[in-house]
Amino acid sequence: MFMKMELLPAKTVERLSEYRRTLINCLKEGKEFIYSHELARLHHKTAVQVRRDIMLMGFSGIQRKGYRVKEMIDAIGKILDCKNGQNVAIVGIGHLGTAILQYFTGKRPKLKMTALFDVDKNKTGREINGIPCYHVDEIPEIVEDKNIEIGIITVPPEYAKETAERLISAGISGILNLTTIPLNVPEDVYLEEYDMITSLEKVAYFSRVLKK
Amino acid sequence: MFMKMELLPAKTVERLSEYRRTLINCLKEGKEFIYSHELARLHHKTAVQVRRDIMLMGFSGIQRKGYRVKEMIDAIGKILDCKNGQNVAIVGIGHLGTAILQYFTGKRPKLKMTALFDVDKNKTGREINGIPCYHVDEIPEIVEDKNIEIGIITVPPEYAKETAERLISAGISGILNLTTIPLNVPEDVYLEEYDMITSLEKVAYFSRVLKK
DNA sequence: ATCTTTTTGTTTAATAATTAACGAATTAAT
DNA sequence: ATTAATTCGTTAATTATTAAACAAAAAGAT
Known about the structure:
The structure is a homodimer. Chain A is α/β, with parallel strands linked by helices.
């Protein structure tokens, strides 16, 4: 048996994730089929792009009827989700870390929030939102023992670098860096960075410059 | 006198914002000059791209010496910052809103955090981190009176749509939407959306698929 | 002084991403 | 039945973004 498993473009992966969330909402509302142009409209995209993304992941719709919502959710799951799940940890349980934690609970069963890390004695040694919180010094053991693959860094900027180093030497394979400090990681670690200040400055720039 | 003021590519604007943050750190460390390849390295970019971005904003370095850090910070400021500043509001002072608020204080003088909005009576009617917090029902008056141009939406997803509508009808010109719900805005409002779950799913996908 | 090295600034080429174009299929209407 | 209208799937064209290439300038070495 032959399994096609090419690498999808990063942009397509992002959009599939976004589509899925919308599709889950559609399903809740009892919608059985959805057209490419409907999905496009909901995401400020073109219908062609939606169809192309769907094509790239190897899924098919029905001419004149659109895509079966339930099946498409499963198809996206086949792409984005790891069969046996992937374990996730958050380092830095301040407001941002807590926001993600809350955001997260119960949403993505294949991404298992497995451990939290902080330095604050009031947070460590207990569960927060049902997830055990450890001291950052325990990163090596816990990451290895619990087979944590993905780390989210939400520590204060001055600790970003050493946090990344700890996660990396503990054997993490992906990092989402939400601090303002760009990180360096070895080739075999996938790094995604996002900075809200940059987004905000972009909004400031374009909202100012684009208006006539 | 002739002022060149073309629209920069979105990607360049993002990078300029990122460069500036790094440059500010360099300045603090007493660094007077920086080479394009140094800046590139710090941001996982190529030196060519850095030079190109700098060129696009009309700034120049010194051959063999690099770019004068202080001047470049100012040059980026001329592009990204509005001379008289732009007023910003956050709607939804939960963990995410609070994280942004903290993140923000004292960092960008040209983006003035002017008002916060929430529905919780414990938060409204007082200052949080030195910024007055109002009930969301007051959005129309406050946005207009205080000339707020940019709104950050960090409310629970089910309120995202109506929050956006309120901000828009109050005359906002840019929105940063950090909820999971994609929004629709009229043409004259600039919209930027970011979803952490999508970032995380991207990390999950690529960290899994790229490893050999 | 001349040569070598380094680094900027800019043009040209390559790559990636998006959009357009259009055939094939399906449904509904006449 | 035939026709008209949609909508998918895919290839081709376009546009945007990134990288390569290289001349010019400056500094340092010989």
